[in-house]
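Cross-posting from the chemistry board since nobody answered there.

I work mostly on the small-molecule side, so proteins are not my area. We synthesized pyridoxal-5'-phosphate and want a rough idea of how it might sit in this target. Sequence and SMILES are below. Is it possible to get a predicted 3D structure of the two together?
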Amino acid sequence: MHHFHFQNGQLYAEEVPVKEIARKVGTPFYLYSAATLKRHFQVFDQAFSSLPHLVCYSVKANSNLAVLRLLAREGSGADIVSGGELYRALKAGIPAEKVVFSGVGKTAREMRQALEAGILMFNVESLGELKVLSRVARSMRKKAPVAIRINPDVDPKTHPYISTGLQKNKFGLDLETALEAYLLAQKDPHLEIVGIDCHIGSQLTEVSPFVEALRRVKAFLQKLKSFGISVRYLDLGGGLGIVYGNEAPPPPEEYARALIEELKDLDVTLVLEPGRVLVGNAGILVTRVLYYKETPQKKFIIVDAGMNDLLRPAFYNAYHEIIPVVSRKRPLIKADVVGPICETGDFLARDREIPQVKPGELLAVMSAGAYGFVMSSNYNSRPRPPEVLVSRDQYFVVRKRENYARLIAGEKIPDFLR
Ligand SMILES: *Cc1c(COP(=O)(O)O)cnc(C)c1O
């Protein structure tokens, strides 16, 4: 459910016509709906209300400060994967004690920052990382709260680039090495075992892989118990999918029901790290048609947003629905919707049935709230687009459009070239 809807043939975000925002801020731009973000968080959180739980929004899905602040106000914690995300989360008002730190490549410096802030736990992904974390904690005369990320080796049945819980993936530790990590942590005076963690992938459209992963985590917890190790937090990661086209992911209630059923005999606080499911359908990318072009083989709609603005189609061959912002009767054509970037991979849609829009018209690329702006770049020296947040009948530019000066900020011509 989201708050982008048509009224008198015009696309609205909540109570504001998208066309009006385009006129004021120019194109392309990202547009988020505050009511949608709020609702998504509440539905997800309430689905787990029958057990002790903490929702740690996965910051990497959309890290705009305004989005983080909105979620913080709803009670969300944060799942971070870098020092930069820690900085953002704290700036946005997410309490450190609701922050979990994931990722295979944490640096000693990032660990120090997180320990200093007092985060809830480090989801440790290798023996090497465990060693470094212990050293950092010792140097600070602290005890680092630790969970080991295990790799349960279940197939999430999603795109290979976003599957993370298979033995061949770089994430987490196999069960044998994970046990070794727990035993090392148990003896280490600078580490405190507080949790166990797994995250099997993204855009999952079935509940069964989550349940399977949870069963394997539970079996592993039994084993830990025999070594006198127990945990307070069971972190099941994120990964619940959303509707982009014709997927039918389980609603949060169904996902929660299946997990709660498995968890009722355990005395742990469940930690969840949803990203996409909270923000994906709360955002769109608005772009303007520049040109229409036909070759002997194909039709192209050339728009002013490219793969530098929205990478998912080029990167994952991802599907995003694309609709005209002003609907009227038009013939349907089959065309590629492409950007201005000098790459063949620069497309938003391929061989898509789409109304025949003319240059100057606006298109909305739907479901672009997750892994949209955060993956944008300056490739082809294109300033990144602004982000706009709508709330009821008002809109706010929550990140301004970059300008040319910003493009070269930090660059320098060395003396020998002067
Ligand atoms: C990316 C990621 C998430 C969020 O995944 P979604 O599919 O967006 O819900 C959660 N936890 C970890 C460790 C991640 O890397």
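Reply from a structural biologist on the board:
Welcome over. Reading the output above for you: The pocket of pyridoxal-5'-phosphate is lined by residues 58, 60-61, 79, 102, 199, 202, 237-240, 273-277, 370 (CB under 6 Å). The chain has two domains: 4-32+280-407, 103-272. Happy to explain the token format if needed.
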